[in-house]
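Researcher: Going back to the complex we discussed earlier. I've cleaned up the inputs and rechecked each line, so this should be the final set. Can you rerun the prediction on the complete assembly and write out the structure?
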Amino acid sequence: MALLKMKFPLQRRVRLAQGLWLLSWLAVLSGAFIFCLGVYLKTELLRRAEVMDNAEIHVVPNILMLVSLASIGTNWFAGRVCQDSLDTTRFPRWKRFLMGWFAVVALLCSLLVTAVVLSYALQGRLEESLKVGLRNGIRFYRDTDVPGRCFQKETIDRLQIQLRCCGNTNYRDWFEVQWISNRYLNFTSKEVKDRVRSNVDGRYLVDGVPFSCCNPESPRPCLQYHLLDNNAHYNYEYQTESLNLYSRGCRQALVDYYMELMNTIGPGVLSVILTQITVAVSLRYLQTAVEGAMALDNPEDDSDGYLLEKNLKETIQDIKTYFLILYMRNKINLESDDADAAEKATAS
Amino acid sequence: MALMKVRFDMRKRVKLTQLVWFLYWVAVMAGILVFSMGLFFKVELRKRSELMDNNESHLLPNLLIGVGIIACGINAFGGKVCYDSLDSNKFLKWRPMLRTFLVSCVFFNALLIVTAVLCFVMRIPMEFTLAEGLKNGMKYYKDTDTPGRCYMKRTLDMMQMEFRCCGNNNFRDWFEIQWVSNRYLDFGAKEVKDRINSNVDGQYLMNAVPFSCCNPSSPRPCIQWQMVNNTAHYSYDHYTEELNVWKRGCSEALLSYYGGLMNTIGALLILVTALQVGVTVGLQYVRTSLMTLCNPDNPESVSEGWILEKTVKETFFDFLRMLKAKFKRNRVEEDDS
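Model: Rerun complete. Updated structure for the full complex:
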């Protein structure tokens, strides 16, 4: 008993071929669209590559780009098969590729599903990578004279301004590092000497933040220094002040940004998977219907189309027997080879 | 002697009609483009109208929007006429109004040229509007508690960060106004009282700029306060310091942005005008070639097409004569009554 058998008169076969041709071109376009989405995601990740410690998250856009290119190829192939399917002389040359085509399409669909799953599963790793990257960025903020790190200040400042965030977890991360370079500190002044001596590592720590943490929405001109000292500023209470600086940490801001991006890409990818499955199912029906018609005396008669020749259980059984025979044949070949080798050894 | 007379056989006529029809549809797209550019420009002006004292002239974007819509209409109609002119029966119904349509096309082309010139000329009033608007805007920076002006600070800060500029002409403009609100000044402190007494208007003036003037490319943490006092900061010389704050003034930055936008729109408008003139000339040829068929019953006969029936001088004098005749007729009617 075939799986999901359907009758296909000539007219329906022709309609199926035409519809499938259109659908395969639609699938090519959606493949191109997914490629563009993959490229966009990759560019966005590369833009902030300086504050990421590792590039594990890049596997998601890489998979999207490769799979979309492959799907453009497979769908173009499906379109060609459609074009030739109603011509009995041209169709047989595509027949032997079709099994492989179905396997490739199954692989592509599973890769796309993996990409979507990974985009959620790798969120934790992304956060870790950003934590380390931002920590280094903040530590090397002052090294504007060290080759290789001289742009760290500008990167972090622009990041904080564009994403409206401050520090790694929050603005207090800036209190724990020396972000003012020694070149701009007067080591003869008492204040500087006191501060440097007040901690074990001899660092000039301030309860202040760079200007890029300032929030333009604040009604008050930005307070950057002496943030924990209520007496340093008139009418100021740091416990209740919320608009002066950005309250969000840059790690959270970046994770939110990338998760939002991947959430927008997710439905697009799922709809492409659906289109691809529809193309595969329709092509299977077309293949079986056309092959059935070619086998009849009158090729223009009605034929049957199905997904599987026998039902699911029998097909699995068939596949198992096929592999078993293959395995037994290999075993016999190996045993006969061994026997031959043993005979030759005893003869010599 | 007709102006630029060309002989047309059937094939040439059909080819010309098809070409003009295609160009009309390109011109419809161009009309849509002009409309969308007008809309974009209007939105950009509205976004920053606070900085221009809500005084900016919306003449140019409104004109662009109107011209775009009219262009779409005229070109769609012209395309329809071209499409119908291949069939002599359908062409007959359009024939009487074609002359008026072509004359109105000529006036529309003149309007397009005027708009294109305006795009380049409007830079000058915009310069004055920006300078005035920014000066007033900076005065209201501190008024974050006054309804109607409470967002001026945010607008100015965002603009200075986005356009990488500081102050009206340069950062010293901030030294001349009080940009810290009185709510955050301790009037009991000696320093505050001294500063306020030191000038006529009783304003708290500082040699300082807001944080949005800071340049992220500077190797040094931003110096905002006591900017002209070299001893206030270690290893600082305000004469040679270049990267600390943005050097450019915001009126220059905004003018270059809007000026660039207007120049692009002007250049595109010139191209659209050229296209529009081309399709008008094409339609005139189509009309005259169909009107002068040697053998009116045989659509395949040879014909001639031209731009003007007589030379430019003769057409101009004819036009004047017609106006005079109309004027005289009116006068005679008045005398009679």
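Model: Worth noting: The interface with chain A takes residues 144-145, 150, 153-154, 157-158, 161, 179-181, 183-186, 189, 210-212, 214, 216-222, 224, 233-235 of chain B (CB under 8 Å).
Researcher: Good, that matches what I expected from the previous run.
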